[in-house]
Design goal:
alpha+beta
Length: about 80
């Protein structure tokens, strides 16, 4: 985004006033300049490549053994009920 404002303002003023029998005329000239500049620049930041970290995985053998133990306990319990 880029915009500029450069302006010159001119103002002429005349004041006429009467003091008793005298007429007073005042003249003045005003000039001013305004200069504005807005400049926005974008910066591109590239993200560094990181190496992926491997998370440890469970192989599932522990849950298989737990299932076999539970089935064995249930079978023994059912045989005792007979």
């Amino acid at each position: 985004m880029d915009w500029r404002v450069d302006s010159v303002s001119v103002r002429d003023s005349i004041v006429v006033r009467q003091v008793n029998d005298t007429v007073v005329v005042e003249k003045w000239h005003s000039t001013w300049r305004e200069k504005e500049l807005l400049k926005v620049d974008t910066v591109r930041v590239e993200k560094e490549q990181t190496t992926p970290v491997q998370t440890p995985r469970r192989n599932g053998k522990g849950s298989l053994w737990l299932l076999l133990v539970v089935l064995l306990v249930v079978c023994v319990w059912l045989l005792k009920l007979r």
